[in-house]
Description:
Elements: E1 4-7, H1 14-24, E2 31-34, H2 45-55, H3 63-70, H4 88-96, H5 99-105, E3 111-113, E4 121-123, H6 138-145
Amino acid sequence: xxxxxxxxxIHGNLPALEAVLADLAQFKVDQVVVAGDVINWGxxxxxxxxxxxxxxxxxxxxxxxxxxLDYETPRAPAEWSDRSNWAMLPWLYRQLNGRWHKAIxxxxxxxxxxxxxxxxxxxxxxSPRSPSSSSPSTWERKSMENPWP
Length: 149
């Protein structure tokens, strides 16, 4: 059966990503998938972007990618202008504006994986309802029981 490694919530922490990859090297993994939050709180978001894209792994957007994409747009909530709570957004925007911003804008919100020797798998960040939600609603739990009718 296909062996997957699902990485998520890297948050721009390059040393942590490198430690995980060093540990992962001991396993036979057929595919690495990154389930969002590649960027943000860590100081190495651009370097993590470089590593993840160089590896060619499929990646989806998490809530931190949405923060970047919606910052300074009409989609941005008013509370983001409060720099005391959202101080990281202007810095992150300056770090990733241009090439990385465009790459993230093209990432999907979810992946549907269909390997020939495994059941279908849907990869999301947070929950199927929202990349910021981690607790699926009753409706989501029922829909996840049979996501491909």
